Amino acid sequence: MNYSIFISIFLISSLPIILSQQPYIRQATTQCESRDNSTSVLGYTCNGASRSCQAYLTFRSQPPFTSVSTISTLFSANSSQISQLNSVPENAVFETNRMVLVPITCSCSGPYYQANTSYVVQQNDTYLSIANATLQGLSTCQALIVQNPDDLATGLFPGEIIRVPLRCACPTRTQIDDGVNYLLSYLVTWNQFVSTISELFRVDTGRTLAANGLSEQDFNIYPFTTLLVPLQDPPSSTQVTAPQPPPPPSSATPLPSAPPPSGGSRRTWIYVLVGVLGGIVLLSTVGVIIFCLFFRKTKQKSKPVPSLESFESIEKPLEKEVDEESQDFLESISSLALSLKVYTFEELKSATQDFSPSCLIKGSVYCGTINGDLAAIKKINGDVSKEINLLNKINHFNLIRLSGVGFNQGNWYLVYEYAPNGALSDWIHDKSEQKMMDWNKRLQIVLDVASGLNYLHRYTSPPHVHKDLNSSNVLLDRDFRAKIANFGLARSAEGQEGQFALTRHIVGTKGYMAPEYLENGLISPKLDVYAFGVLMLEIFTGKEVSLLYEEVNMQLSEVLTPLLNENGQENVRKIMDPLLQGNYPSELALVVFRLIDNCLKKDLSDRPNMDDVFQSLSRISTSSLSGGWAISISEHRTAPR
Ligand SMILES: *[C@@H]1O[C@H](CO)[C@@H](O)[C@H](O)[C@H]1NC(C)=O
Ligand SMILES: *[C@@H]1O[C@H](CO)[C@@H](O)[C@H](O)[C@H]1NC(C)=O
Ligand SMILES: *[C@@H]1O[C@H](CO)[C@@H](O)[C@H](O)[C@H]1NC(C)=O
Ligand SMILES: *[C@@H]1O[C@H](CO)[C@@H](O)[C@H](O)[C@H]1NC(C)=O
Ligand SMILES: *[C@@H]1O[C@H](CO)[C@@H](O)[C@H](O)[C@H]1NC(C)=O
Known about the structure:
Helix content: 25-40%
Distance between the termini: 75 Å
Domain LysM: 117-164
Number of strands: 18
Shape: globular
Region (Disordered): 234-261
Number of helices: 25
GO biological process, one term: response to other organism
Keywords: ATP-binding, Cell membrane, Disulfide bond, Membrane, Nucleotide-binding, Signal, Transmembrane, Transmembrane helix
Bound molecules: 2-acetamido-2-deoxy-beta-D-glucopyranose
Main location: membrane
């Protein structure tokens, strides 16, 4: 029985996806000028069964909003209800960063659901700082701007009172039929996944995904956005004050959840303390029991389980110890990373027909079938803890997903999601395949890679650099969407703002390495920006990197810059992949090549960061799919050859 509990914690439940209810806001929160209302930036659509309902928010206490009374003022919420919901007295002060539950009444206002509150503008406040910093994402700058039309002319001034719509929603008919009575607007922070948030409130991950218009293929969430959690019962303080994995998640063990300790409202701090401590003890006991029962099945001797960090710091253990350490490491993975499955060698062997050559993809990567799903299985002899640690924190559509791991006789086996269309390099360099790669497909691929790198640079904690981006490390799925793979060289870019890490150990792929790295061993996210520039050049010219360098024999951008200044469109036509000739929008192509040129700047401070690159490519992609495209084709037809 305990075994099955454990398994159910391992597996993200895969209930059929119910009708999507509200679109997730994604990264639209920072583009205050954008009037695009296709995401939920202006608020969640008023599509529920009722026009008004009880709803909940989560907020992390931050000075000056650390007490029941200041938080109730900020959200215009009832303070006695806040104190009850969080099991604290009305005069309580929370420690910083504690998650506080706030009950609100959510109502339709025009086309959107919202809860109204007001806010007194402070010195130096902007709509973005109010939405993102003060309210942590519970409102958006776009909604604030739209609902305070009088301020457009005057701008914000200190002391002014503005209307603030808070993001909330009421359950739809479908959700109510499904047993959902409340929606909680959960504030996402760093390194969080839909599955971990769902576990916190003990709701099904599939339902949370559906409630936000997300799916198992499209599950990326970003810090400082709201995620709707569908609840049957009102949330309780035990759910949000349970020990949570602090970032990075590898340093604490999220315990399997147990039923909350029962009990009515607590009036004094003593009761609260006793309750919370009791809860923790109960949770840990249940966790330890399950843990022991599970591991008795696989291992007789019990040794303290090292953390992932401690494994990393082991320099070169003796041969004999390697296996033991690896065994411990495997176990620590199974206890720490709930999303990672540990496979036995037998399972891997049967998945790959005993690692038969017919299953070999390339090098030491095999294709296998596990539980009916295709997977790529890579055999590695060496330290994989860094890659596992990183991939375990990552959750992005454009970064290859690690789903499991195995170990046998000194070799690691990493099990990844399978990308049926293989490496990008095969598609751009094989002339017979290349026909498939039209302009828009290539644009989608570069946009995908930019999105993945941007996530790696900005939304992993600490930020990471891939360090080995090239066209064989970009894989294509069934729909030719790109996924960045091979994180073996990736490393943290921590503490490198203004001051960069240096290394004497230069590794990477020839042709893609930035000048400052080759010459001085300087490591920063701009390294990936340079490699991305080379990759884009490869994609749009259809030429292999070695060929590109042979032709120019110097800094790529030294050649590119002058070409783009005068007769830019004509020159781009000369270097564009011959297979695309006549079938691409020439103005946009010039914009793309200017972007490539910027990414390839010799001086890293002249290069844009990945966020800028991603934003530019999104705009290019939007115009390519709409008007710009038709205009330039017709223009091209009449242009002299
Ligand atoms: C979104 O904007 C368009 C045009 O700006 C408008 O017609 C439409 O009603 C808006 N949709 C919502 C839900 O506000
Ligand atoms: C706050 O909630 C309590 C209990 O739910 C209720 O008795 C009280 O009247 C409410 N106060 C206000 C100002 O609405
Ligand atoms: C919230 O404020 C809007 C105006 O910003 C107003 O139209 C709406 O009626 C208010 N809702 C409630 C419940 O007071
Ligand atoms: C507002 O900004 C100015 C200049 O940027 C700074 O000197 C001042 O301390 C800021 N005030 C507050 C309250 O942050
Ligand atoms: C939003 O706030 C967080 C934390 O306060 C900060 O790290 C992030 O950069 C902010 N985003 C923007 C676009 O200002």
